[in-house]
């Protein structure tokens, strides 16, 4: 019996860690889709209903929380012109700050009022947390907060930057941290050694303001990185930086692509669906019904969901045919996420919408105000919804 209980405990621990590691990057490892269950439908933040804990944040930011094991990692920026950059770790069970590290910005802190120097979402693994800021500063820490390395990308590449604020998040693949640094100055995609911070490869890119984030995918069992910008999609081998193919298209330079059952979905004029392979494929379908600029699309269980001006559109993933449209009060900048048969969306005014996944008609299950503005995409864990607001990190659970 004791042996059985030991095995069961190990199984549950491994299962919990697997679920947590699904959310170690922007939108998690499955483009906003999680296997987590037991997530809340209703909460009342002001009354404390459905709030496991909330943590007052040390500074501004629109980066999303990422999770490894029982720790949540987040970035922030504070001080005059946001010149102090912060990485912090939080206990996912209690909301207690475990450690906080800060350093001075070396690059420009000019940005649009709706964004922040803590715009890019970090990426994490069992060896550490890797953070990039809109200033071009990049740092890596162990999970316990020890500095592994630091780099100033604007020192190495002085023309990097734009006046609106950079926000491309990090990805991992092929043993490298992948940086998409496409801007009005020197533009490139680079593979960084996670152990040392050394640049292992770099692809020169055409200068253009881009806020899309690279997407780590598997193609025939091999790591690949999908890169989107306003002029198309590229597939890159992250082990060596080789560009496998480039597909020209008029796409948006903010929302990032989604993936479902070997098909890529990207927002543009029009929205496009194309097969993911090491050989460039033909467009499967196009649609004018998914005009999102900021929020990335969500693809799950045969459907593609996109944030549009009046709410949420649902299309058939195979044909592109519109199935339904749910009106929601926006604007919505945070990406939609899905788990447990539900889709979660947060408007900029803090309204949290819970929409039933699938169906032939839309079904709005709940609208829950949070009481502060939200632009960051939430993270999902079994029984927990982690939401970064303007002033707090919230952990929402079933009441």
Secondary structure layout:
Blueprint lengths: L1 H20 L29 E6 L9 E3 L2 E8 L5 E8 L5 E8 L18 E3 L2 E5 L4 E5 L5 E6 H4 L14 E3 L2 E6 L5 E6 L6 E7 L9 E5 L2 E8 L2 E6 L4 E7 L9 E3 L2 E4 L4 E5 L9 E3 L10 E3 L2 E6 L2 E6 L5 E6 L9 E3 L2 E5 L4 E6 L7 E6 L9 E3 L2 E5 L3 E5 L3
Antiparallel strand pairs: 1-32, 2-3, 3-4, 4-5, 6-7, 7-8, 8-9, 10-11, 11-12, 12-13, 14-15, 15-16, 16-17, 18-19, 19-20, 20-21, 22-23, 23-24, 24-25, 26-27, 27-28, 28-29, 30-31, 31-32
Question: CATH class, anyone?
Answer: Mainly Beta
Shape: globular
- Multimeric status of the protein: single chain
Number of helices: 2
Global mean pLDDT? 92
Helix content: under 10%
CATH architectural category:
7 Propeller
Question: What is the total number of structural domains?
Answer: 1
- Specify the structural class: mainly beta
Might you state the CATH topology name? Methylamine Dehydrogenase, Chain H
| Main sheet attributes: strand count, strand direction, barrel closure | 4 strands, antiparallel
Q: Determine the N-to-C terminus distance.
A: 35 Å
Contiguous runs where pLDDT drops below 50 for at least 5 residues: 1-21
For the secondary structure, the number of strands is 32
CATH superfamily: YVTN repeat-like/Quinoprotein amine dehydrogenase
Give the strand order, joined by hyphens, for the main sheet.
1-32-31-30
Task: Indicate the proportion of strand residues.
Answer: 35-45%
